[in-house]
Amino acid sequence: MATPNTPLWEVFIRSRNGLAHKHVGSLHASDAIMALQAARDIYTRRGEGLSIWVVPSSAITASDPAEKGMMFEPAESKIYRHPTFYEVPDEVGHM
Amino acid sequence: MYTQALNTAETADRDLEDAGKAAQFQARIDAEERIEPNDWMPAAYRKTLTRQISQHAHSEIVGMLPEGNWITRAPTLRRKAALLAKVQDECGHGLYLYAAAETLGSSREELVDAMLAGKAKYSSIFNYPTLTWADIGTIGWLVDGAAIMNQIPLCRCSYGPYARAMIRVCKEESFHQRQGYEIMVTLCRGSEEQKAMAQDALNRWWWPVLMMFGPPDATSQHSDTSTKWKIKRFSNDELRQKFVDATVPQAQYLGLTIPDPGMTQDADGHWRHSEIDWTEFKQVLTGNGPCNRDRMAARRKAHEEGAWVREAAASYAAKRAQRQTAQAAE
Asked: Which NCBIfam families does the protein's record reference (chain B) (predicted)?
């Protein structure tokens, strides 16, 4: 019997309380429960995490790097979104 | 998230003739930018990296076999637990690397099948037998030491997923080398027989370990383009020399003799080894090493015997998915 390819999962780990989950890598597993167990064995052998998320890779929609110029242009041209754009007199002190 | 976006691979290959894109790609490499899976890349870059990363992954997986040989016979519970953890790490390294290779567009199944069919290679070093407990010390000290030498520059490799995998691997590899050296220190401080066992292991592993760095620069096939693409940062001979210079003092501390009577130290302090027997290297690479057949047989057996588990997990997942759909429809 030909076994279908085992699905791919992306693994996110929260390393300490207060920090966000961070992408650490991917793995193959047949279902979510096995993906969680495999993520523990592959990515947290030295106490790297307090919490794991696994997400089917197919559920992720990614932006196209070839379009990154157009995609991020609106942020590039708006320097007034940064605090350093504004002048505050020295006498006022730290703000 | 990386792999399936590679259905763009075909378009990328068609664009191979686009000199403009190739020049842009090289400019990004020269500017030390990292190449990510969805970026345009020359077909040869993809092919070279797929081959290199998957070979690296196969090596980690086959590398579990010579050491696994001693888990049940480790001399103490402490040594056993450490060896077990090390072998488990090698498996993890293989899995990080397969994941990185897959981002270039091959499936895990294709990569593993290529190895089992004998079409993909793994490191020559794992075709040597582990005859005594001292071999486990020597592997950690020298084989993992050589691997670290080779892998540290790979943390800055131009291909992002490979570089990131290497960072994780290098962090863990340091424990491997230290546990190996500790075994050697213990043997060398032990009885005459134990010290002789350590020397015997060094005698058998020294030359195969030097071969791990690959053919001499003058005859290496893949070096030029790999250097241009910043996959490779140092040549085979440069890394080999670094390794020898780092290792000789460690052997001296142990009171062991490097099995190379022709070795000399030059004016700059570099230890110069004698000529390496490259016919042996070629023999091992073409399948005629002491353990090639055993290693392949063990991998194939494990894969075949695990087939029912993969099938059961797939059917269980399919059944559950079906039930969920049915429930949702009610």
From this structure: PA_CoA_Oxy1
Is there a domain that residue A68 lies in? no
Assembly ipTM:
0.82
What are the C-alpha distances in Å from B248 to residues A83, B29, B117, B272? Answer: 56, 36, 39, 10
**pLDDT by residue (tens digit) across B102-127?**
999 999 999 999 999 999 999 999 99
Q: What is the 3-state secondary structure (H, E, C) of chain B?
A: CCCHHHHHHHHHHHHHHCHHHHHHHHHHHHCCCCECCCCCCCHHHHHHHHHHHHHHHHHHHHCHHHHHCCHHHCCCHHHHHHHHHHHHHHHHHHHHHHHHHHCCCCCHHHHHHHHHCCCCCCCHHHHCCCCCHHHHHHHHHHHHHHHHHHHCHHHHCCEHHHHHHHHHHHHHHHHHHHHHHHHHHHHHCCCHHHHHHHHHHHHHHHHHHHHCCCCCHHHCCCHHHHHHCCCCCCCHHHHHHHHHHHHHHHHHHHCCCCCCCCCEECCCCCEECCCCCHHHHHHHHHHHCCCHHHHHHHHHHHHHHCHHHHHHHHHHHHHHHHHHHHHHHC
What is the nearest CA distance from B121 to chain A, expressed in angstroms? 23
**SS3 state of residue A42:** helix
pLDDT tens for each residue of B28-47: 999 999 999 989 999 999 99
User: CA of B91, closest CA in chain A: separation in Å?
Assistant: 9
* Best residue of A5, A8, A23 to probe chain B, by most B CBs closer than 10 Å: A8
- Residue B3's closest CA among B47, B26, B36, B30? B36
pTM: 0.89
Domain containing residue A55: CATH number: 3.10.20.520
Which residues of chain B are within 8 Å of residue A6 when distances are taken between CB atoms?
108-109, 310, 313-314
A30 touches chain B (CB under 8 A): yes
| Contact present, A27 and A11 (Cβ < 8 Å) | yes
Q: B5 to chain A: which residues are within 8 Å by CB?
A: 62
With beta carbons less than 8 A apart as the criterion, state whether B2 and B37 touch.
Answer: yes
Residue B95: its chain A contacts at CB < 8 A?
27, 42
Q: What is the pLDDT of residue A1?
A: 44
